[in-house]
Amino acid sequence: MPTDLKRDLGLPETTAIAIGAMVGSGIFILPGIAYLEAGGPSVVAAFLVAAVLIVPAALSASEMATAMPEDGGSYVYVERGMGPLLGTIAGLGNWFMLSFKGALALVGGVPYLVYVAPAIADATVPIVGDPVIALALAIATGFIVLNLVSTSSTGRLQFFIVGVMVVVMGAFVLLGGRHVDPAQTDGLTAVGEGNFLAATALVFISYAGVIKIAAVAEEVKDPGRVIPQAMLGSLLVTTLLYVLVVYVAIGIVDVDAAIGQGLLAADGEGAIMAIAADQAIGTVGVIAVTVAALLALASTANAGLLSASRFPFAMARDDLAPSAFATVSERFGTPVLAVATTGAVMLVMIAYLPIDQVAKLGSAFQILVFILVNLALVGFREGALEEYNPEFVSPLYPWMQLFGMASGFVVLTQIGLFPFAAAVAVTGVSVVYYYAYARHRVDREGAARTGVRKEVGDRAIERTEELFADDRTYDALVAITDETSEPGARDMLRVAADLSRLGSTHVSAVRFSETPQHVFGGHAPDVAQADDPDWLPFDERPEWLAAATRAGGGPEQSSITAGSLPQTDTATEATLEAAAGTAVDYREVTAENVRQAVVDFATFEGYDLLLLERRREDFHRRLFGVGDTEWFLRNAPCGVLLVEDRGFDGADEIAVVASRGAYDPLKLLVADAIAEETGARITLLQAVPEAAPEQRREAIEDYHAALISILTVPAQSRVIEADDRVAGLARFAEPADLLVTGTEARGFGGELLGRPDDRLVDSVDCTAVMVQPESERRVGFLKRAVLDRLF
User: Fold this and answer.
1) Which spans are transmembrane here (predicted)?
2) How far apart are CA 747 and CA 640, in angstroms?
């Protein structure tokens, strides 16, 4: 997206921003705390391991930054890759946390100031009171003005600050290294002992700034080359600096003794670098390290302000925040409102917020962001978007990203309950904000959903092609119970007859009658057929049956032809005509448990389809027990067709609805068979919300076009925009002569209010066939929810 931002940041400035965002508390505050957490010198290895765990996110961010050199960094990648909801979480979360960390960095030099000038702690400043807070507010105000005026000035200042800090800490390593006590560094490699992972989680935040370069990617010269070099180079330099400085510090300072002398707090917090410089170098070293610490913490705050302000700026351009945040000053070329608002938040935090749990709070959310960054890259790669063309490609995909996500979850479990809960709370606030403000302002979705939908659609199309090309034989069982109406029985037989084109379809019509329960259980069902003494003569068989022949073929089996049997009434004649040319056998079964007998009969006889009359009342009492229809849907060993009788005597138009997810191939095959036998046209109906992204509608239309090419009858596509999905589908399905839909199982809402497919059938006047393939009984809630969101 073109903007008026200036590309003023070269490789040195960009690298300095990343190093400045990383080097701060990681060197000057955390070593003593992490030493106690790790239980000894293995804290050095903790810094090294944490850096290794950062590498996947750095590589992922580098690739995406070269494909999308836009301000916003991880927010942009997560939003484009995983969609606006996760993008909002990443954007708001990063904004709050970077502002928080930047504000706290300005007061993080307190131990160093107190160490060199103890009298500072006793001073009083009017209004503010605490002199350290007053100084932090003044420095923060200066950084705000600087960021409002010029980003390039900010980059040059960052370069200067980082240069001074690296020189000082390099001298500290060279001069202090001669005073390292080997006994104090014994156990550097004890990575499996104590709370090593907890220490790793604690220092994780030390590297959080590595991907902050991407937050100003739109202001970087030659981003395709500079961003990967700056990101990976800064991580290498910072890791080396951390390992060497922390090694020297713990090799000089006896942490336990320093705590006993009051030089460090009981948790290890304090001016540990100044203490080490004092013991190894002297006063000059103390002053130099203190200046470096103040500069480092100031640079962290400056980089935090610069990076944090770009998140509301980028979100505003994507309609996830008010548009005013995207306004760029014509005079200075900076996002004035975004910088000013972020600065104001930092000032409030400096004045009022405590500094406890800063490291763990920051680490918890940064770990979540790194996980999302790795996930976003997977979304882009699997989404296969044509416009995604990165100049730098992350190696070892997808194993690098999977390692980054898995290791992030492991470290997250070690960070503590409170920081984890805080990160969850920020996530929850972001979700509420998205649904309250942003959801209806965006019309797009992430690359991951687009890619997964395409993959799911392609697989559904392949399954449909395979089923239509299969010449298998289908055995259909028309199950008639004492509750089945005579018109319903006729319609079921008519539908079964129309399905004859599925192959050499064999239709069985079986009446299941209930017999009184015996005192002693275990009474087996009685099956009556042509060679049984109780077999009924034809003139005593029900009118809905067009003809009956003995099961199993042979000379006694014949096809039904209108006029070959005694005519009884108009309804029977119509049924005879409908079933003409179809082989049907008729049986009667008596059993104590009718529904169990139906399932057992279908199981042992090996039927492929079970046709039942849909009983509307069964779907409105499911909270008070399972009705017969619901029981059949759960226990049938084969596909189930529920027929809602409303007088079916042929069709000109058949509406086939996929109320949720992709079309099941069996539903299409049934509709195609009936349409071919009746000469009808098929209309494929699906509904999307009115605010659904355009990509979603286009994907469904493409999917319909592929299905239409598979069907053997004329067909058309209709994608409906309606927030009330059932009402929208019913309005367009009403003119059809037959509705073919599904029997999707739902959760508690479906139990209470009825399932969408049932409500759709109840909303139209035409005959309906609800199709449940055998595989549908194994589809879980999660899969149905995912398919619903995709389609």
Assistant:
1) 15-36, 43-61, 81-98, 103-120, 132-150, 157-176, 196-217, 229-250, 270-297, 336-355, 361-380, 417-436
2) 20
The pLDDT assigned to 683 comes to 92
Residue environment code for 349-368, b if the CB has 16+ CB neighbours within 10 A, otherwise e:
bbbeeeeeebbbbbbbbbbb
DSSP string, 234-250: HHHHHHHHHHHHHHHHH
Cα 102 to Cα 299: distance, rounded to the nearest angstrom: 9
Do β-strands 738-742 and 715-721 pair in parallel, antiparallel, or remain unpaired? unpaired
Helix (H) or strand (E) holding 655: strand 653-657
pLDDT of residue 629: 79
pTM, 2 dp: 0.59
How many residues are listed for the chain in this entry? 791
Torsion of CA 295, 300, 305, 311, to 10 degrees: 160
Query: Could you tell me what percentage of the chain is helix, strand and coil, using 3-state DSSP and rounding each to the nearest 5?
Result: 60, 10, 30
Assess contact for 519 and 594: CB atoms under 8 A. no
Separation of alpha carbons 348 and 719, rounded Å? 51
Contact predicate 497/575, CB 8 Å: no
**Are the C-beta atoms of 571 and 543 separated by less than 8 Å?**
yes
C-alpha distances in angstroms, 385 versus 52, 205, 236, 391, 454? 30, 33, 32, 15, 11
- Neighbouring residues of 261: CB distance < 8 A, sequence distance ≥ 6: none
Q: Which residues contact 544 (CB under 8 A, 6 or more apart)?
A: 480, 486, 487, 489, 490, 493, 571, 572, 575
Structure tokens at 748: 């508690």
**Token pair of 364, please?**
């918890």
**Position of tokens 């702690």?**
121
**In CATH, what number does 11-442 get?**
1.20.1740.10
What pLDDT does 194 receive?
63
pLDDT on residue 690:
78
| Strand-pair partners of 683 | 655, 716
In angstroms, what is the C-alpha Rg of the chain?
36
- Give the model's pLDDT for residue 244: 92
> Could you tell me the residue ranges of all domains in the chain?
11-442, 444-472+650-791, 475-604
**Per-position b or e across 466-504, b if 16+ CB within 10 A of its CB:** ebeeeeeebbbbbbbbeebeebbbbbbbbbbbbbbebee
Closest among 397, 346, 391, 400 to 370, alpha carbons compared:
400
Give dist(CA 631, CA 642) in Å, integer: 13
**pLDDT for residue 297:** 73
Distance CA 717, CA 53 (A): 49
The reported pLDDT for the residue numbered 513 is 85
Distance CA 368, CA 97 (A): 12
What's the burial of 570, exposed, middle or buried (CB within 10 Å: 0-12/13-18/19+)? exposed
pLDDT attached to residue 268: 79
φ/ψ of residue 642, rounded to 5: -95, 125
Give the chain's residues under pLDDT 50: 1-4, 356, 519-520, 530-541, 544-580, 623, 746-750, 752, 777-791
444-472+650-791 is classed CATH 3.40.50.620: yes
What pLDDT, on a 0 to 100 scale, did the predictor assign at position 533? Answer: 43
In this predicted structure, what is the pLDDT of residue 71?
57
